[in-house]
Amino acid sequence: MKKPPDFHLKLQLAVSLAVATAAFGLPVVLNPGTAAAAAPQECSSTPFTSKSATRYRVPAVVRVPDGRLFVFAEKRNDNADNDDDGDFDIAMKTSTDGGCTWGGEKIVADHGKLRVSNPVPVYVPARDKVLLITTVKTKDSSARTGYRNYMHQQWIDTDGGSFTSLTSGRVTVPNWRPGLTGPGHGIVLTKGSHAGRIIFAMGYTENDKRTARGVYSDDNGATWQIGYDRAASGKQQLIEGSIAELPDGRLLTAYRDNGKGVSKPGSNRMQAYSTNGGESIGSFSLMSGVKTVPVEGSLLQTTGGRELLLFSSPSNTSFKITSRRGMRIFVSTNNGQSWRSGLAVGSTTDPACYSDMVQLDAGTIGLVYENGYSPEKAYWNRIVFRQVSVSDLEQTLLPSLAKKKSPSVSGTHKVGKTVTASQGTWSPNATVTRYQWLRNGKEISSATSASYKLSKADKGKKVSVKVTVTSPGYQPSTATSSAKKVK
């Protein structure tokens, strides 16, 4: 008997979850029929909310072995103008329940009225501490502007209770060029001759040319070296990088292109590979399949079982180039050679901007990102945290259903009458999992049955129905009927 098209994927996913779950020290449940159910219930939260002129920007997140999460953000004081300079501190919160709730805020880095920015956290196993790297604007008479950016590091206990001072953590790096660290998490390499190396991405400008750079330490943060140092080519202007270690031991680094990509949405994410632990990289190429506007993004390589390479970024390119909307997690199954559109997180019109990711356990990813309260609000209103199921990401790799005929609505479109939805025709045959009635394109609360009784609120409005269907081995699909005015 021929297996349904999703059988092997479900079996592979179940085994992957079992292996990875064991790696995270969790109970193993191996059941191909219920693999997706093995993931914990997803939650969302808001660790930081901007108020008045105090704005929280540029989040970063890291996990320690006991499961505690550390989330960081720039706390921009007196920042009503949303300028990228000023009195910036680094705020931190911790969570012991996977990011569903957060403890009180701590200011871990404060440099008076000057800027502390671009947090790069990384858990360092050899020291069993969180290393926090930041960029600190410092007075420097030798600089043309009177100020220069320097790298600082601090160590934070894994319970979040204490941390070293910012001022004692200034780092001397040979051949340093003032730039901006990260932002977003750094990594500790686990494979090959460079296992144990701490590395993060940064960028700097010299002679009006943006240059991508990696900075690494082979002695657990005692000293630092410059790794790859590659100027962008042509009209490229590369800033804000992220690094992931691939299953084969190579590194992939990805940068925002603020040059030619600024004028062409969807063509502004560049990536390059390293085969020597980040000491050098090859030429930059376009991240094929990643469609976004010029903005920071985060790479994450999942571990255990079937390993996915993920990239988070706003994905809506239908607005003006400076609009940042529609957070999405792109997925690659071939080490970044190509990217799939992956999973939309929230509405495609919701404000979304800088982001970072962390693996919480075998079945769950944590995503932290800048967000607004509604499509009308700005992305700097708050920073939100969302749990995302690995099985949902896996599901985006399945083929799509083919719509042969759109959903339709039968009945008289008149107040007091009942109208009924038809799911349309799909290939292969599909089952309806949800009806959602719409009034002028907006969801009608509690109107989720196959039939809907038209009310006075519908008079003069256009009513339609959105239908979600599924079929084994295929992605869920959604289609909407044509809208008809109610008399």
UniProtKB/TrEMBL annotation:
GO terms for biological process: ganglioside catabolic process; oligosaccharide catabolic process. Keywords: Signal. Pfam families: BNR_2. The keyword Glycoprotein does not apply. Coiled coil: none annotated. Residues 83-365 form the Sialidase domain. It catalyses: Hydrolysis of alpha-(2->3)-, alpha-(2->6)-, alpha-(2->8)- glycosidic linkages of terminal sialic acid residues in oligosaccharides, glycoproteins, glycolipids, colominic acid and synthetic substrates. GO terms for molecular function: exo-alpha-sialidase activity. Residues 1-37 form the signal peptide. SUPFAM superfamilies: Sialidases. Its EC number is 3.2.1.18. The keyword Signal applies. GO terms for cellular component: cytoplasm; membrane. Belongs to the glycosyl hydrolase 33 family. This is exo-alpha-sialidase. It comes from Propionicimonas paludicola.
